[in-house]
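Re: that chain you flagged

S.,

Sorry for the slow reply, it's been a week of failed gels. I finally had a moment to sit down with the sequence you sent. For the record, here it is as I used it:
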Amino acid sequence: MKINKNIVLLFTFLTFLLVACSDKANIAAIVNGTKITKKTYEATLGNLILQQKQNNPNFVDNEQTRLLLGKMALEQLITNEVLFQESQKAKITVNEEAVDQNINNLKQILAVDENGKVLTDKKQIKDKFNKKLKTDGVTLKQLRKNIRKELSVKLFLKDLSDKQKIELSEDILEKFYDGTMAVARKNQNKIKSLSTEDLALITPFASEVKKITAERVSISTIFLATPETMDSTEIANKKELANKIVQELRNRKIVFIQAIQMYSDDKSALQTNGEQLIIRGTLPRDLDKKIFEARLGRVIGPITKPEGIYILRVNEKRAATPLTYGQLRSDIINYLISVALQQKVQQQVKELVQKSNVKILLPEYKVNAPAASN
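Prediction finished late last night. Pasting the structure tokens below so you have them in one place:
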């Protein structure tokens, strides 16, 4: 099982805009004499809101959620500034090759067109990157400065984690495995015997175990959207188109990847060559049954749902594969060490922030600002 063996670095957050400003009205906070501008704060808040919208379809952008996310953004920026200052005290340096690699990574993220196709032309990639910089109102020099700062924080946190000592007994590992199996298999009697703390620790790991051991299929999907705003005539046209696509696929007049490119309203699947993995039990029961009982290579559909019409094809099937303690032991060790390190480092970071001289200048966060003093 593939588990990230590196500690999840805490509180790191790439913010493009770090603008020096002497006007107190434009300052969000001051950390040990270093100013965090409102522009930086607003950019960070904007990124958090965007992430919420992308990850949560039920996200509501209102005053209350902005206050909550704004608090998170301010805490991130304050913590990052404290950690950067500590990294400078520790004389941590970042080489230019690492900065260049991060710039290249950002370019690769942007090197995808509107249809999900990966760009290969260097000029196109460069133009898109420069356009992004211009849109965000940041120069390449400012971006490089902020990447250095982010990397300095990461190296400082890694140094903190490397100094920790974590010991795990065989008894702890075996009990964790038993708890994992209980949660993954939904054994309610054993789950009830777990403490709240143990259950919270086990659940994320058990979720990953379930993903890699559960019965699964690889499918290709064509999606024709039928939003509530669409009238009955348009919906009828979509249904007619869906039937036409199914016939073309079954008569082999077109291959599935071409059909996705030509007809699908969701082309994100093109980034994985038109395929996605589905785990048994994660879809609505009727759809789950159709997919897992279908023959390999069979075109399924059209299937009409409130949000749209689906046409599917099953590409590959894999049976459930239970894992023994011996197979999971090293991953359990890595996971438990990672969690313990996070907790220890997080406590140290909290103490560093509490010891710092932090002044909050945003009126809505002056009172009860966590880990900060006015």
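What I noticed first: The chain has twelve helices and seven strands.

Talk soon,
D.
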